[in-house]
Amino acid sequence: MEMCTPFLLTDLDGEDQHFPGERPALLCFVKEDCPTCREVMPLLAALQAKLAATMDLRIIGQTREGNHTLAQTHGVSVLDDSALKVAFAYSVETVPTVYVTDAQGRLQSTLVGFVRDEWLELVRELLGEAACEALLDWSKLPAWRPGCGSLSVDPAHAERLQAEAENSPLRARRIEVASQDDEFEFMFDQGFSDGLPLVPPTPERVLRMLAGTARDAQDVIAVMPPNMAEVTVEKIAVNAVMAGCRPEYLPVVIAAVEAVCTDEFNVHGMMATTMGASPVMVVNGPIRERLGMNMKLGALGQGNRANATMGRALRLVIRNMGGAKPGGTERSTLGNPMKFTMCFAEWEERSPWSALHVERGFQPEDSVVSIFTMTSGPTLIVDQDSRSASQLAGSFGMSLESAFHPKAHFATEVLLVICPEHVDTLTRDGFDKADIRARIQEVTARPIRDLVADERSAVGFKQAQAQQMDEAALSRLLPKFKNDEDIHIVVAGSDAGKFSGAFHGWATGEIGSMPVSKKIEEV
Amino acid sequence: MTTILDPTDERVPVHRELTPRPVEITGKVALLDISKPRGSVLLDRLEARLAERMPGVLLQRYKKPTFAKPAPEPLRQEILRDNDFVIEALAD
User: Which residues span the domain enclosing A30?
Assistant: First the structure.
């Protein structure tokens, strides 16, 4: 026989009442504003008096004021469950609901709503036939009445109750913010913020956020340096709430956290470097549309909630879980605004070429987040004049020459964001991504002689190195990028305007950071 | 009263004591180059000066593969095992 959950409630005189007591019990869950409950109350009142010597008849009410009304109107003892914890623990969906238990608290039977014949049978069993008939005029009671919804399943309370229940998926430390404290100021004071206000991560909001993923709240997604913190789904959800995310964004943020916590990506180096590197997130696949991401007009800027908050959520996880804070292990000389957030989607449908995620080995129908370590961007490439693909890709190259420093070749990578009008110019001449990359490498190629430290600038090959080289070696042409693949290309932006953009990278490859793409696991 | 959930890793950083400073340098000293430009220049000078001042001390050079990442665990273990002191040269 099923055991009913033990509980302790107080009656309206403030006396503790335990269940189970030492006698069999009737646990009657009621709510004052429920018409069926009101109808049943005379029966419960008569029974409570009649059974006082043999059984505990517990009338358990759901609102403080209503409980007093019930007690006064019917002369009964009512237990106060206005916190709704006992109703929640018993999964009461309807009031009235009555549980009949033995002295040990084992469940004997349950009555839901009001069915007169069921009650007659119960009361006959408890009092015997004659006493049952004498108890009250049964004919005045309706044959059948459905109950009302219990407050414990009302959406206004259900999430709070779930968050507070013992089997709640939430394990994060709860911080009480005193009522005279402003929770927004409190979060600034605690150092949780990137400098902008945060949404308070209340248990209810975090639970709603967790509904965005099928993963267990306590799954450890990654170990994040420098604190080497075990980042759980729950902790990502807390930070996603603070960043302003909707629950459906959570899988993207989870995949992003997974991506940055790889040895290839090297999030510790990215945050610690004095160069001021930041994660740049690019989202591909069907999820872009579902989340309403911006990939068109102003895609790299402000104004779109999904773009803005997903990028911010990743940065807050890095800050709060990883522990990378400016002045601590984050040592950026200047910093850059991408450290607040930088996330956008590729406009795959406007691109004649393979989308970024497909180039990186995924299926077109996969939803994927790719993350790059970038130190600056988007720097604008203004070319309203070139009418041939060769000229335009040449302009790209000339602009990209400035990444790090014009004399720094083989030093970094770039993420080139080509706008639709430029896409049209390139495709008219049949250029694909390989052609664009080749042209960039072609126009940026310089003889090593031009890249040696000199009186204009000491960046580049050292004089001592150059002195070891013969004429042929000094004449060798060196393109800007060590590999063509160091030029990453995506399409985004509005249909109007001949302005592409580029993010400039950091230390590239195994010595620094490599881009990492992760498939987004959707619910 | 508002309740919020802690967004951090909830770990109070461990307070670490400095290793006691010995009064004199004896035994083996590791010179660790983090591989930033010109770090080796500093270490070359240091090595020469230390060799001059403390001829009895064995100086051993080490180098991180990249300044952008923490030293690999085997390198850290090797330095710890084979040395009594370590001098790490930073950058630029």
Answer: 7-164
